User: What shape does this take?
Amino acid sequence: MNTITIRFLPSGKTVAAHIGDNLLQIALDAGVHINASCGGSGTCGKCKVIVQEGELSHEASALLSDDEYQSGIRLACRAALTNDVTVAVPSGSLKDIAGAPVPRSVPHAARRISQQFAEEVMRAASDPPARKVHLKLSPPRSDDNISDMERVRRGLRRDYGIRDVQFGLPLVKQLPRLLRASKFTVTGALVDDGCMRITALESGDTTSTQCALALDIGTTSLWGRLIDITSKRILTEASAYNPQIPYGDDIISRIIFSQRQDGLAKLQTAISSGVLQLINELLAATGRTAYDIAYIAAAGNTVMTHTLLGIDPTYIREAPYVPAANTMPLVTGADLGWNIVGHAPVRCLPCPASYVGGDIVAGVLSSGMHRSNALTLYIDIGTNGEIVLGNKDWLMAAACSAGPAFEGGGLCCGMRAVPGAIEGFSIDDETLEPMVVTIDRAVAQGICGSGAINILAECMRTGLVDRSGRLNDIRDSKRMRRTDNGLEYVLVFAEDTGAPHDIVLREADIENLIRAKAAMFAGYHCLLEKAGLGFHDIEQVIIAGAFGDYIDVEKAIAIGLLPDIPRERYVFIGNGSLLGAQLVSLSRALLDEAMSIAGKITTIELSDDRSFTDKYIAGLFLPHTHIDLFPTVRAWIGAS
Assistant: This one.
Protein backbone atom coordinates (compact mmCIF):
# COMPACT_ATOMS: atom_id res chain seq x y z
CA MET A 1 0.00 0.00 0.00
CA ASN A 2 1.21 3.52 -0.81
CA THR A 3 2.13 5.60 2.25
CA ILE A 4 0.90 9.18 2.37
CA THR A 5 1.13 11.95 4.96
CA ILE A 6 -1.59 13.73 6.90
CA ARG A 7 -0.93 16.86 8.96
CA PHE A 8 -3.29 18.07 11.69
CA LEU A 9 -3.57 21.76 12.59
CA PRO A 10 -3.15 23.62 14.86
CA SER A 11 -1.10 20.98 16.70
CA GLY A 12 1.14 20.41 13.67
CA LYS A 13 1.15 16.67 14.31
CA THR A 14 2.07 14.73 11.16
CA VAL A 15 1.44 11.01 10.74
CA ALA A 16 1.81 8.45 7.98
CA ALA A 17 -1.22 6.62 6.63
CA HIS A 18 -2.41 4.70 3.59
CA ILE A 19 -4.74 5.51 0.72
CA GLY A 20 -8.29 4.66 1.70
CA ASP A 21 -7.71 4.99 5.47
CA ASN A 22 -10.51 6.67 7.41
CA LEU A 23 -9.66 10.13 8.76
CA LEU A 24 -11.46 9.74 12.10
CA GLN A 25 -9.68 6.48 12.83
CA ILE A 26 -6.32 7.99 11.87
CA ALA A 27 -6.91 10.90 14.24
CA LEU A 28 -7.81 8.56 17.10
CA ASP A 29 -4.73 6.41 16.54
CA ALA A 30 -2.56 9.52 16.33
CA GLY A 31 -3.94 10.99 19.54
CA VAL A 32 -5.70 13.93 17.89
CA HIS A 33 -9.09 14.60 19.46
CA ILE A 34 -12.01 15.30 17.14
CA ASN A 35 -15.44 15.56 18.73
CA ALA A 36 -17.51 12.57 17.54
CA SER A 37 -20.57 11.21 19.31
CA CYS A 38 -22.15 8.66 17.01
CA GLY A 39 -19.24 6.23 16.77
CA GLY A 40 -18.27 7.23 13.25
CA SER A 41 -21.55 6.31 11.59
CA GLY A 42 -22.14 9.80 10.16
CA THR A 43 -25.30 10.62 12.12
CA CYS A 44 -24.18 13.29 14.61
CA GLY A 45 -22.28 15.66 12.31
CA LYS A 46 -19.86 16.75 15.05
CA CYS A 47 -16.57 15.54 13.57
CA LYS A 48 -16.12 18.44 11.14
CA VAL A 49 -12.63 19.33 9.95
CA ILE A 50 -11.37 21.83 7.38
CA VAL A 51 -9.18 20.75 4.49
CA GLN A 52 -6.34 23.26 4.18
CA GLU A 53 -4.16 21.51 1.60
CA GLY A 54 -4.79 18.46 -0.56
CA GLU A 55 -8.11 16.64 -0.85
CA LEU A 56 -10.10 13.88 0.79
CA SER A 57 -12.50 11.37 -0.70
CA HIS A 58 -15.80 12.06 1.02
CA GLU A 59 -19.15 10.25 1.10
CA ALA A 60 -22.24 12.37 0.58
CA SER A 61 -23.85 13.62 3.79
CA ALA A 62 -26.97 15.67 4.45
CA LEU A 63 -25.18 17.02 7.55
CA LEU A 64 -22.95 19.21 5.38
CA SER A 65 -24.42 22.15 3.48
CA ASP A 66 -23.22 23.03 -0.01
CA ASP A 67 -21.55 26.16 1.39
CA GLU A 68 -19.71 24.12 4.02
CA TYR A 69 -18.53 21.60 1.47
CA GLN A 70 -17.34 24.32 -0.91
CA SER A 71 -15.37 25.94 1.94
CA GLY A 72 -13.47 22.67 2.54
CA ILE A 73 -15.39 21.35 5.54
CA ARG A 74 -15.60 17.56 5.75
CA LEU A 75 -16.88 14.98 8.24
CA ALA A 76 -13.87 13.02 9.49
CA CYS A 77 -15.90 9.82 9.77
CA ARG A 78 -16.90 10.04 6.11
CA ALA A 79 -13.51 11.09 4.75
CA ALA A 80 -10.87 8.77 3.30
CA LEU A 81 -7.33 9.60 2.27
CA THR A 82 -6.40 9.87 -1.40
CA ASN A 83 -3.11 11.82 -1.16
CA ASP A 84 -1.10 14.00 1.22
CA VAL A 85 -3.41 16.34 3.08
CA THR A 86 -3.47 19.00 5.80
CA VAL A 87 -6.61 19.39 7.86
CA ALA A 88 -7.53 21.87 10.58
CA VAL A 89 -9.47 20.66 13.60
CA PRO A 90 -11.93 23.38 14.80
CA SER A 91 -11.79 24.78 18.32
CA GLY A 92 -13.55 22.53 20.78
CA SER A 93 -11.62 19.63 19.32
CA LEU A 94 -8.21 21.23 19.55
CA LYS A 95 -6.77 19.10 22.32
CA ASP A 96 -3.86 16.87 21.36
CA ILE A 97 -4.38 13.87 23.65
CA ALA A 98 -1.10 12.20 22.87
CA GLY A 99 0.93 14.09 25.44
CA ALA A 100 1.72 10.98 27.49
CA PRO A 101 5.44 10.20 27.83
CA VAL A 102 4.94 6.70 26.41
CA PRO A 103 3.45 5.40 23.12
CA ARG A 104 -0.32 4.92 23.09
CA SER A 105 -0.31 1.30 22.03
CA VAL A 106 1.66 -1.53 20.54
CA PRO A 107 2.48 -0.94 16.85
CA HIS A 108 -0.08 -2.66 14.66
CA ALA A 109 2.63 -4.79 13.03
CA ALA A 110 3.15 -6.58 16.36
CA ARG A 111 -0.50 -7.29 16.96
CA ARG A 112 -0.54 -10.54 15.03
CA ILE A 113 3.06 -11.64 15.27
CA SER A 114 2.28 -14.49 17.67
CA GLN A 115 -0.14 -15.95 15.12
CA GLN A 116 2.69 -16.61 12.70
CA PHE A 117 3.47 -19.84 14.53
CA ALA A 118 -0.09 -21.11 14.13
CA GLU A 119 -0.18 -20.21 10.46
CA GLU A 120 3.14 -21.94 9.78
CA VAL A 121 2.04 -25.08 11.63
CA MET A 122 -1.28 -25.09 9.83
CA ARG A 123 0.37 -24.86 6.41
CA ALA A 124 2.60 -27.80 7.29
CA ALA A 125 -0.23 -29.99 8.62
CA SER A 126 -1.02 -32.89 6.30
CA ASP A 127 -2.85 -35.27 8.62
CA PRO A 128 -6.40 -34.04 9.20
CA PRO A 129 -8.32 -36.23 11.66
CA ALA A 130 -11.24 -36.27 9.23
CA ARG A 131 -11.42 -36.63 5.46
CA LYS A 132 -13.75 -37.76 2.72
CA VAL A 133 -13.10 -40.56 0.24
CA HIS A 134 -14.95 -41.39 -2.96
CA LEU A 135 -15.94 -45.04 -3.48
CA LYS A 136 -17.20 -46.73 -6.66
CA LEU A 137 -18.45 -50.09 -5.44
CA SER A 138 -19.60 -53.02 -7.53
CA PRO A 139 -23.24 -53.96 -6.96
CA PRO A 140 -23.98 -57.34 -5.35
CA ARG A 141 -24.20 -60.43 -7.61
CA SER A 142 -24.93 -64.06 -6.95
CA ASP A 143 -21.23 -64.76 -6.92
CA ASP A 144 -20.46 -61.63 -4.85
CA ASN A 145 -23.10 -61.37 -2.17
CA ILE A 146 -21.09 -60.09 0.78
CA SER A 147 -22.87 -57.74 3.17
CA ASP A 148 -23.22 -54.05 2.45
CA MET A 149 -20.87 -53.20 5.31
CA GLU A 150 -18.17 -55.56 4.05
CA ARG A 151 -18.62 -54.16 0.55
CA VAL A 152 -17.77 -50.68 1.83
CA ARG A 153 -14.84 -52.07 3.82
CA ARG A 154 -13.53 -53.87 0.78
CA GLY A 155 -13.69 -50.66 -1.25
CA LEU A 156 -11.72 -48.80 1.43
CA ARG A 157 -9.02 -51.51 1.47
CA ARG A 158 -8.81 -51.67 -2.30
CA ASP A 159 -8.77 -47.94 -3.09
CA TYR A 160 -7.14 -46.41 -0.01
CA GLY A 161 -5.42 -49.20 1.90
CA ILE A 162 -7.63 -48.54 4.90
CA ARG A 163 -8.32 -51.51 7.18
CA ASP A 164 -10.16 -52.12 10.44
CA VAL A 165 -12.78 -49.42 9.94
CA GLN A 166 -15.51 -49.18 12.57
CA PHE A 167 -19.17 -48.49 11.75
CA GLY A 168 -21.78 -47.04 14.08
CA LEU A 169 -25.26 -48.52 14.27
CA PRO A 170 -27.03 -45.46 12.79
CA LEU A 171 -24.87 -45.72 9.67
CA VAL A 172 -25.43 -49.46 9.32
CA LYS A 173 -29.18 -48.83 9.37
CA GLN A 174 -28.80 -46.44 6.41
CA LEU A 175 -26.58 -48.67 4.28
CA PRO A 176 -29.07 -50.84 2.35
CA ARG A 177 -31.18 -48.07 0.87
CA LEU A 178 -28.41 -45.50 0.58
CA LEU A 179 -26.08 -47.75 -1.45
CA ARG A 180 -28.80 -48.78 -3.87
CA ALA A 181 -30.24 -45.27 -4.25
CA SER A 182 -26.75 -44.01 -5.12
CA LYS A 183 -26.02 -46.95 -7.47
CA PHE A 184 -23.13 -47.89 -5.17
CA THR A 185 -21.22 -44.67 -5.87
CA VAL A 186 -20.78 -42.95 -2.53
CA THR A 187 -18.54 -40.70 -0.47
CA GLY A 188 -17.48 -41.85 2.97
CA ALA A 189 -16.56 -39.51 5.84
CA LEU A 190 -13.62 -41.01 7.73
CA VAL A 191 -12.31 -40.01 11.14
CA ASP A 192 -8.99 -41.08 12.64
CA ASP A 193 -9.10 -39.88 16.23
CA GLY A 194 -7.43 -42.79 17.98
CA CYS A 195 -9.13 -45.37 15.78
CA MET A 196 -10.44 -45.28 12.21
CA ARG A 197 -14.20 -45.04 11.82
CA ILE A 198 -16.60 -44.11 9.07
CA THR A 199 -19.15 -41.61 10.31
CA ALA A 200 -21.29 -40.93 7.26
CA LEU A 201 -21.97 -41.94 3.67
CA GLU A 202 -23.30 -39.62 1.00
CA SER A 203 -24.51 -40.33 -2.50
CA GLY A 204 -22.11 -39.43 -5.32
CA ASP A 205 -18.77 -37.66 -5.03
CA THR A 206 -18.81 -34.93 -2.38
CA THR A 207 -15.09 -34.93 -1.59
CA SER A 208 -14.77 -31.30 -2.69
CA THR A 209 -16.94 -30.13 0.21
CA GLN A 210 -15.31 -31.34 3.40
CA CYS A 211 -15.24 -28.97 6.34
CA ALA A 212 -14.19 -28.86 9.95
CA LEU A 213 -15.91 -26.81 12.63
CA ALA A 214 -13.88 -25.15 15.39
CA LEU A 215 -15.79 -24.00 18.48
CA ASP A 216 -14.78 -21.76 21.36
CA ILE A 217 -17.19 -22.46 24.21
CA GLY A 218 -16.76 -19.37 26.36
CA THR A 219 -18.55 -18.50 29.57
CA THR A 220 -20.02 -15.34 28.04
CA SER A 221 -19.55 -15.82 24.29
CA LEU A 222 -19.63 -18.67 21.80
CA TRP A 223 -17.51 -18.55 18.64
CA GLY A 224 -17.60 -20.84 15.64
CA ARG A 225 -15.32 -21.07 12.62
CA LEU A 226 -15.95 -23.15 9.51
CA ILE A 227 -12.78 -24.36 7.77
CA ASP A 228 -12.28 -26.08 4.43
CA ILE A 229 -10.22 -29.17 5.28
CA THR A 230 -8.57 -29.48 1.88
CA SER A 231 -7.45 -25.86 1.43
CA LYS A 232 -7.23 -25.11 5.19
CA ARG A 233 -9.02 -21.87 4.38
CA ILE A 234 -11.38 -20.24 6.88
CA LEU A 235 -14.74 -20.01 5.14
CA THR A 236 -16.50 -17.87 7.75
CA GLU A 237 -16.94 -17.39 11.46
CA ALA A 238 -19.72 -16.26 13.77
CA SER A 239 -20.33 -15.52 17.43
CA ALA A 240 -23.19 -15.25 19.88
CA TYR A 241 -23.80 -14.82 23.57
CA ASN A 242 -23.73 -18.08 25.54
CA PRO A 243 -27.42 -18.87 26.22
CA GLN A 244 -26.43 -20.12 29.69
CA ILE A 245 -26.01 -16.51 30.88
CA PRO A 246 -29.55 -16.31 32.39
CA TYR A 247 -28.50 -19.12 34.74
CA GLY A 248 -25.44 -17.23 36.01
CA ASP A 249 -22.82 -14.75 34.85
CA ASP A 250 -19.86 -16.91 35.85
CA ILE A 251 -18.91 -20.57 36.14
CA ILE A 252 -19.44 -20.77 39.91
CA SER A 253 -23.06 -19.58 39.68
CA ARG A 254 -23.66 -22.09 36.88
CA ILE A 255 -22.24 -24.94 38.93
CA ILE A 256 -24.65 -23.95 41.69
CA PHE A 257 -27.52 -23.84 39.19
CA SER A 258 -26.57 -27.29 37.87
CA GLN A 259 -27.35 -28.75 41.30
CA ARG A 260 -31.01 -27.77 41.03
CA GLN A 261 -33.59 -30.19 39.73
CA ASP A 262 -33.07 -30.41 35.95
CA GLY A 263 -30.44 -27.68 36.29
CA LEU A 264 -27.71 -29.54 34.43
CA ALA A 265 -30.13 -30.54 31.66
CA LYS A 266 -31.17 -26.91 31.24
CA LEU A 267 -27.56 -25.79 31.03
CA GLN A 268 -26.76 -28.40 28.39
CA THR A 269 -29.89 -27.59 26.40
CA ALA A 270 -29.04 -23.88 26.49
CA ILE A 271 -25.47 -24.27 25.30
CA SER A 272 -26.56 -26.74 22.61
CA SER A 273 -29.08 -24.22 21.30
CA GLY A 274 -26.29 -21.64 21.05
CA VAL A 275 -24.00 -24.02 19.17
CA LEU A 276 -26.77 -25.01 16.76
CA GLN A 277 -27.52 -21.33 16.13
CA LEU A 278 -23.87 -20.82 15.20
CA ILE A 279 -23.83 -23.88 12.94
CA ASN A 280 -26.93 -22.73 11.07
CA GLU A 281 -25.46 -19.25 10.68
CA LEU A 282 -22.14 -20.59 9.38
CA LEU A 283 -23.83 -22.92 6.89
CA ALA A 284 -26.18 -20.18 5.67
CA ALA A 285 -23.24 -17.82 5.11
CA THR A 286 -21.30 -20.34 3.00
CA GLY A 287 -24.00 -22.34 1.26
CA ARG A 288 -22.56 -25.53 2.73
CA THR A 289 -24.68 -28.36 4.14
CA ALA A 290 -24.49 -30.01 7.54
CA TYR A 291 -23.12 -33.19 5.91
CA ASP A 292 -20.11 -31.17 4.73
CA ILE A 293 -18.99 -30.91 8.38
CA ALA A 294 -16.76 -33.92 8.92
CA TYR A 295 -15.21 -33.03 12.28
CA ILE A 296 -15.88 -30.71 15.23
CA ALA A 297 -13.22 -29.54 17.71
CA ALA A 298 -14.40 -27.65 20.79
CA ALA A 299 -12.32 -25.76 23.34
CA GLY A 300 -13.77 -24.44 26.58
CA ASN A 301 -12.95 -24.08 30.23
CA THR A 302 -13.51 -27.14 32.38
CA VAL A 303 -16.98 -26.17 33.60
CA MET A 304 -18.17 -25.25 30.11
CA THR A 305 -16.81 -28.54 28.77
CA HIS A 306 -18.66 -30.47 31.47
CA THR A 307 -21.97 -28.73 30.84
CA LEU A 308 -21.55 -29.04 27.07
CA LEU A 309 -21.33 -32.82 27.50
CA GLY A 310 -23.95 -32.99 30.26
CA ILE A 311 -21.42 -34.06 32.91
CA ASP A 312 -22.02 -33.08 36.54
CA PRO A 313 -19.60 -30.22 37.46
CA THR A 314 -20.51 -30.15 41.18
CA TYR A 315 -17.18 -31.27 42.57
CA ILE A 316 -15.19 -28.79 40.54
CA ARG A 317 -16.37 -26.17 43.03
CA GLU A 318 -15.73 -28.16 46.21
CA ALA A 319 -12.28 -28.74 47.69
CA PRO A 320 -10.15 -30.49 46.56
CA TYR A 321 -11.69 -29.28 43.24
CA VAL A 322 -11.94 -32.46 41.17
CA PRO A 323 -13.44 -32.61 37.65
CA ALA A 324 -15.17 -35.75 36.39
CA ALA A 325 -12.49 -36.15 33.74
CA ASN A 326 -9.56 -34.26 32.25
CA THR A 327 -9.69 -35.92 28.83
CA MET A 328 -13.18 -36.35 27.47
CA PRO A 329 -14.26 -39.26 25.26
CA LEU A 330 -14.92 -38.64 21.59
CA VAL A 331 -18.66 -38.20 21.03
CA THR A 332 -20.88 -37.46 18.07
CA GLY A 333 -23.27 -34.63 17.40
CA ALA A 334 -26.12 -37.09 17.93
CA ASP A 335 -24.85 -37.85 21.44
CA LEU A 336 -25.27 -34.16 22.28
CA GLY A 337 -28.63 -33.74 20.59
CA TRP A 338 -27.12 -31.82 17.67
CA ASN A 339 -29.08 -33.81 15.14
CA ILE A 340 -28.26 -31.49 12.26
CA VAL A 341 -24.64 -32.72 12.57
CA GLY A 342 -25.46 -35.98 14.29
CA HIS A 343 -22.92 -37.86 12.15
CA ALA A 344 -19.97 -35.62 13.02
CA PRO A 345 -17.46 -36.58 15.72
CA VAL A 346 -16.99 -33.97 18.45
CA ARG A 347 -13.58 -33.72 20.12
CA CYS A 348 -13.32 -31.57 23.26
CA LEU A 349 -9.79 -30.44 24.03
CA PRO A 350 -8.36 -31.75 27.33
CA CYS A 351 -8.83 -29.81 30.57
CA PRO A 352 -5.76 -29.97 32.84
CA ALA A 353 -7.58 -28.95 36.05
CA SER A 354 -10.86 -27.74 37.50
CA TYR A 355 -10.36 -24.13 36.46
CA VAL A 356 -7.77 -24.50 33.70
CA GLY A 357 -9.51 -25.92 30.67
CA GLY A 358 -9.27 -26.86 27.04
CA ASP A 359 -9.45 -23.21 26.00
CA ILE A 360 -6.10 -22.50 27.65
CA VAL A 361 -4.58 -25.68 26.18
CA ALA A 362 -5.78 -24.52 22.76
CA GLY A 363 -4.27 -21.09 23.37
CA VAL A 364 -0.88 -22.45 24.39
CA LEU A 365 -0.91 -24.70 21.32
CA SER A 366 -1.77 -21.88 18.93
CA SER A 367 0.72 -19.43 20.47
CA GLY A 368 3.68 -21.82 20.29
CA MET A 369 4.92 -20.74 23.74
CA HIS A 370 5.40 -24.41 24.63
CA ARG A 371 8.11 -24.59 21.94
CA SER A 372 9.79 -21.26 22.79
CA ASN A 373 12.86 -20.44 24.90
CA ALA A 374 11.37 -17.06 25.90
CA LEU A 375 9.76 -16.73 29.31
CA THR A 376 6.19 -16.02 28.27
CA LEU A 377 3.08 -14.87 30.09
CA TYR A 378 -0.04 -15.97 28.20
CA ILE A 379 -3.20 -14.12 29.23
CA ASP A 380 -6.68 -15.14 28.12
CA ILE A 381 -8.83 -12.22 29.25
CA GLY A 382 -12.43 -13.29 29.70
CA THR A 383 -15.07 -14.09 32.28
CA ASN A 384 -12.96 -16.97 33.53
CA GLY A 385 -9.54 -15.35 33.16
CA GLU A 386 -6.83 -17.93 32.57
CA ILE A 387 -3.08 -17.36 32.77
CA VAL A 388 -0.08 -19.47 31.77
CA LEU A 389 3.55 -18.72 32.62
CA GLY A 390 6.51 -20.61 31.21
CA ASN A 391 8.33 -21.75 28.09
CA LYS A 392 9.37 -24.99 26.36
CA ASP A 393 10.78 -26.38 29.62
CA TRP A 394 7.87 -25.75 32.00
CA LEU A 395 4.34 -24.39 32.11
CA MET A 396 2.45 -23.11 35.16
CA ALA A 397 -1.20 -22.06 34.95
CA ALA A 398 -3.96 -20.58 37.07
CA ALA A 399 -7.44 -19.20 36.62
CA CYS A 400 -9.25 -16.33 38.30
CA SER A 401 -12.89 -15.34 38.00
CA ALA A 402 -12.74 -11.90 36.43
CA GLY A 403 -16.45 -11.69 35.70
CA PRO A 404 -18.00 -10.74 32.36
CA ALA A 405 -17.02 -7.04 32.31
CA PHE A 406 -14.27 -7.51 29.70
CA GLU A 407 -16.76 -9.24 27.41
CA GLY A 408 -19.34 -6.47 27.73
CA GLY A 409 -21.31 -8.15 30.53
CA GLY A 410 -21.90 -6.51 33.88
CA LEU A 411 -22.01 -3.04 32.28
CA CYS A 412 -25.29 -1.15 31.98
CA CYS A 413 -24.60 -0.48 28.29
CA GLY A 414 -22.28 -3.44 27.68
CA MET A 415 -22.22 -5.58 24.55
CA ARG A 416 -19.94 -7.97 22.68
CA ALA A 417 -17.21 -6.71 20.35
CA VAL A 418 -19.40 -6.52 17.24
CA PRO A 419 -20.22 -3.63 14.85
CA GLY A 420 -21.67 -0.71 16.80
CA ALA A 421 -19.69 -1.40 19.98
CA ILE A 422 -17.67 1.58 21.20
CA GLU A 423 -14.01 0.69 20.72
CA GLY A 424 -11.93 3.87 20.34
CA PHE A 425 -12.44 6.70 22.79
CA SER A 426 -10.89 9.95 23.98
CA ILE A 427 -12.05 12.96 25.99
CA ASP A 428 -11.22 16.62 25.43
CA ASP A 429 -9.57 17.87 28.62
CA GLU A 430 -11.41 21.19 28.68
CA THR A 431 -14.89 20.54 27.29
CA LEU A 432 -15.17 16.86 28.34
CA GLU A 433 -16.63 16.22 24.89
CA PRO A 434 -15.87 12.66 23.74
CA MET A 435 -14.42 11.22 20.57
CA VAL A 436 -16.26 7.94 20.01
CA VAL A 437 -15.33 5.38 17.36
CA THR A 438 -17.20 2.11 17.07
CA ILE A 439 -16.26 -1.19 15.50
CA ASP A 440 -16.81 -0.85 11.74
CA ARG A 441 -17.87 2.76 12.47
CA ALA A 442 -21.46 1.57 12.77
CA VAL A 443 -24.06 3.50 14.77
CA ALA A 444 -23.08 3.37 18.45
CA GLN A 445 -25.06 0.71 20.31
CA GLY A 446 -23.08 0.09 23.50
CA ILE A 447 -19.67 -0.59 25.05
CA CYS A 448 -17.54 -3.68 24.47
CA GLY A 449 -14.75 -4.81 26.80
CA SER A 450 -11.89 -3.13 24.97
CA GLY A 451 -13.93 0.06 24.71
CA ALA A 452 -14.61 -0.02 28.44
CA ILE A 453 -10.85 -0.17 29.09
CA ASN A 454 -10.25 2.83 26.82
CA ILE A 455 -13.09 4.80 28.38
CA LEU A 456 -11.94 4.16 31.95
CA ALA A 457 -8.35 5.10 31.12
CA GLU A 458 -9.46 8.38 29.53
CA CYS A 459 -11.66 9.18 32.53
CA MET A 460 -8.63 8.60 34.75
CA ARG A 461 -6.43 10.81 32.61
CA THR A 462 -8.86 13.73 32.63
CA GLY A 463 -9.71 13.42 36.32
CA LEU A 464 -13.32 12.36 35.73
CA VAL A 465 -12.57 9.22 37.74
CA ASP A 466 -10.37 9.19 40.83
CA ARG A 467 -8.03 6.35 41.79
CA SER A 468 -10.73 4.69 43.90
CA GLY A 469 -13.01 4.49 40.86
CA ARG A 470 -15.43 7.26 41.84
CA LEU A 471 -16.77 9.68 39.24
CA ASN A 472 -15.92 13.32 39.88
CA ASP A 473 -18.80 15.77 39.41
CA ILE A 474 -16.86 18.95 40.11
CA ARG A 475 -16.40 19.50 36.37
CA ASP A 476 -19.21 21.48 34.77
CA SER A 477 -20.47 19.41 31.86
CA LYS A 478 -23.86 18.35 30.54
CA ARG A 479 -22.39 14.87 30.19
CA MET A 480 -21.90 14.39 33.93
CA ARG A 481 -25.24 13.89 35.63
CA ARG A 482 -26.70 12.44 38.81
CA THR A 483 -29.52 9.89 38.51
CA ASP A 484 -31.29 7.37 40.72
CA ASN A 485 -28.41 5.03 39.84
CA GLY A 486 -25.82 7.56 41.07
CA LEU A 487 -23.38 9.58 38.99
CA GLU A 488 -22.94 8.72 35.33
CA TYR A 489 -21.01 10.12 32.39
CA VAL A 490 -22.89 10.23 29.07
CA LEU A 491 -20.76 8.87 26.25
CA VAL A 492 -23.39 9.12 23.52
CA PHE A 493 -26.69 10.97 23.62
CA ALA A 494 -29.50 9.04 21.95
CA GLU A 495 -30.35 12.07 19.81
CA ASP A 496 -26.95 11.82 18.10
CA THR A 497 -27.53 8.28 16.85
CA GLY A 498 -31.26 7.66 16.88
CA ALA A 499 -30.68 4.97 19.52
CA PRO A 500 -33.48 4.28 22.02
CA HIS A 501 -31.37 5.40 25.01
CA ASP A 502 -28.22 7.23 25.97
CA ILE A 503 -25.00 5.23 26.28
CA VAL A 504 -23.48 5.91 29.70
CA LEU A 505 -20.73 4.89 32.09
CA ARG A 506 -21.87 4.45 35.70
CA GLU A 507 -19.91 4.04 38.91
CA ALA A 508 -21.23 0.47 39.15
CA ASP A 509 -19.67 -0.23 35.75
CA ILE A 510 -16.36 1.13 36.98
CA GLU A 511 -16.53 -1.07 40.08
CA ASN A 512 -17.06 -4.15 37.90
CA LEU A 513 -14.12 -3.22 35.68
CA ILE A 514 -11.85 -2.62 38.67
CA ARG A 515 -12.76 -5.97 40.24
CA ALA A 516 -12.10 -7.74 36.94
CA LYS A 517 -8.73 -6.11 36.34
CA ALA A 518 -7.70 -6.66 39.97
CA ALA A 519 -8.40 -10.40 39.70
CA MET A 520 -6.38 -10.71 36.49
CA PHE A 521 -3.39 -8.73 37.76
CA ALA A 522 -3.35 -10.62 41.07
CA GLY A 523 -3.26 -13.85 39.08
CA TYR A 524 -0.15 -12.82 37.11
CA HIS A 525 1.52 -11.57 40.27
CA CYS A 526 0.87 -14.84 42.14
CA LEU A 527 2.19 -17.06 39.35
CA LEU A 528 5.36 -15.02 39.03
CA GLU A 529 5.90 -15.02 42.79
CA LYS A 530 5.46 -18.79 43.02
CA ALA A 531 8.02 -19.22 40.23
CA GLY A 532 10.44 -16.90 42.04
CA LEU A 533 10.20 -14.32 39.26
CA GLY A 534 9.17 -10.71 38.83
CA PHE A 535 7.44 -8.72 36.10
CA HIS A 536 10.83 -7.58 34.79
CA ASP A 537 11.71 -11.22 33.97
CA ILE A 538 8.89 -11.57 31.43
CA GLU A 539 10.28 -11.64 27.89
CA GLN A 540 6.94 -11.87 26.08
CA VAL A 541 3.28 -11.31 26.95
CA ILE A 542 0.73 -12.90 24.64
CA ILE A 543 -2.73 -11.33 24.85
CA ALA A 544 -5.56 -13.66 23.93
CA GLY A 545 -9.32 -13.43 24.12
CA ALA A 546 -12.02 -12.56 21.63
CA PHE A 547 -11.37 -8.84 22.04
CA GLY A 548 -7.58 -9.11 21.93
CA ASP A 549 -7.46 -7.51 18.47
CA TYR A 550 -9.03 -4.32 19.81
CA ILE A 551 -7.34 -3.79 23.17
CA ASP A 552 -5.05 -0.78 23.55
CA VAL A 553 -2.07 -1.90 25.62
CA GLU A 554 -1.34 1.59 26.92
CA LYS A 555 -4.88 2.02 28.20
CA ALA A 556 -4.94 -1.49 29.68
CA ILE A 557 -1.71 -0.74 31.56
CA ALA A 558 -3.13 2.61 32.69
CA ILE A 559 -6.04 0.98 34.54
CA GLY A 560 -3.83 -1.76 36.01
CA LEU A 561 -5.00 -4.66 33.86
CA LEU A 562 -1.61 -5.38 32.26
CA PRO A 563 1.86 -5.13 33.81
CA ASP A 564 3.86 -1.97 33.19
CA ILE A 565 6.73 -3.47 31.19
CA PRO A 566 8.30 -2.42 27.85
CA ARG A 567 5.53 -2.31 25.25
CA GLU A 568 7.51 -4.15 22.60
CA ARG A 569 7.16 -7.31 24.69
CA TYR A 570 3.42 -7.44 24.02
CA VAL A 571 2.04 -9.48 21.14
CA PHE A 572 -1.50 -10.51 20.24
CA ILE A 573 -3.13 -13.72 19.13
CA GLY A 574 -6.82 -12.80 19.22
CA ASN A 575 -9.06 -15.73 20.09
CA GLY A 576 -6.39 -18.32 20.93
CA SER A 577 -9.00 -20.83 22.05
CA LEU A 578 -10.75 -20.76 18.67
CA LEU A 579 -7.44 -20.83 16.80
CA GLY A 580 -6.25 -23.84 18.80
CA ALA A 581 -9.49 -25.70 18.08
CA GLN A 582 -8.97 -24.90 14.42
CA LEU A 583 -5.46 -26.39 14.50
CA VAL A 584 -6.67 -29.57 16.17
CA SER A 585 -9.46 -29.90 13.60
CA LEU A 586 -6.84 -29.92 10.82
CA SER A 587 -4.10 -32.13 12.28
CA ARG A 588 -4.03 -35.39 14.22
CA ALA A 589 -0.45 -34.61 15.26
CA LEU A 590 -1.52 -31.27 16.73
CA LEU A 591 -4.25 -33.02 18.72
CA ASP A 592 -1.52 -35.23 20.19
CA GLU A 593 0.50 -32.09 20.92
CA ALA A 594 -2.47 -30.56 22.72
CA MET A 595 -2.76 -33.69 24.85
CA SER A 596 0.94 -33.38 25.68
CA ILE A 597 0.54 -29.73 26.68
CA ALA A 598 -2.33 -30.61 29.02
CA GLY A 599 -0.13 -33.19 30.75
CA LYS A 600 2.77 -30.74 31.07
CA ILE A 601 0.90 -27.88 32.77
CA THR A 602 1.29 -27.48 36.53
CA THR A 603 -1.84 -25.80 37.86
CA ILE A 604 -1.97 -23.45 40.83
CA GLU A 605 -5.25 -23.15 42.75
CA LEU A 606 -5.84 -19.51 43.65
CA SER A 607 -9.28 -19.65 45.27
CA ASP A 608 -7.87 -20.57 48.70
CA ASP A 609 -4.57 -18.73 48.30
CA ARG A 610 -4.12 -15.97 50.90
CA SER A 611 -1.46 -14.32 48.75
CA PHE A 612 -3.92 -14.05 45.85
CA THR A 613 -6.54 -12.47 48.12
CA ASP A 614 -4.07 -9.88 49.38
CA LYS A 615 -2.96 -9.06 45.84
CA TYR A 616 -6.56 -8.84 44.66
CA ILE A 617 -7.41 -6.31 47.37
CA ALA A 618 -4.31 -4.30 46.49
CA GLY A 619 -5.53 -4.21 42.89
CA LEU A 620 -8.85 -2.53 43.77
CA PHE A 621 -7.36 0.86 42.97
CA LEU A 622 -6.46 2.63 39.74
CA PRO A 623 -4.04 1.50 38.54
CA HIS A 624 -3.02 -0.22 41.80
CA THR A 625 -2.54 0.49 45.49
CA HIS A 626 1.21 0.13 44.95
CA ILE A 627 1.73 2.80 42.31
CA ASP A 628 5.43 1.89 42.06
CA LEU A 629 4.36 -1.16 40.04
CA PHE A 630 3.20 1.29 37.34
CA PRO A 631 5.95 3.90 36.92
CA THR A 632 4.86 5.13 33.49
CA VAL A 633 1.24 5.43 34.61
CA ARG A 634 2.30 7.39 37.68
CA ALA A 635 3.90 9.94 35.37
CA TRP A 636 0.89 9.86 33.03
CA ILE A 637 -1.70 10.69 35.69
CA GLY A 638 0.64 12.79 37.81
CA ALA A 639 0.27 10.55 40.88
CA SER A 640 2.72 10.93 43.75
